[in-house]
Each structure stands twice: as C-alpha cells, then as structure tokens.
Q: What sequence folds into this?
C-alpha cells in the first residue's frame, strides 16, 4: 500500500512542472535526479515561463498547463 503524497508532492504539479522535471532528469545528471529537492527553484522557473508566455501572447496560459 502506498502512502499519500505529501503536500507539495507530485500530485499538485501541472504539465509544465512535469515537463521541466523530465528534462532535468534526462539532461541534468545526478544534480537533478530528485525533482522534489529542486521544487522551489522549478516553481520559479515555470512561473517565469508562464509570465513570459502571457506577456508575449497577451493570453493566459491554459488551465491544463497552469496550476
């Protein structure tokens, strides 16, 4: 039986967060092997990506890709 995900765990990540985690695992080596250790940094990165998208397009990021 698996334990429930802790607050801030993988269940509250959107597609952009999951995509960044996957890219870091593939190209980042050992430093990025555990996405939970880099969670705060990843949130800052994905928030900046969302803001840039909204600034360039003038539209909100679709709810499917934004938390």
A:
């Amino acid at each position: 039986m698996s334990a429930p995900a802790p607050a801030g765990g993988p269940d509250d990540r959107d597609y952009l967060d999951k995509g960044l985690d996957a890219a870091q695992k593939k190209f980042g080596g050992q430093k990025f092997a555990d996405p939970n250790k880099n969670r705060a940094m990843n949130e800052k990165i994905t928030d900046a990506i969302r803001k840039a998208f909204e600034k360039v397009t003038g539209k909100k990021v679709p709810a499917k890709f934004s938390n």
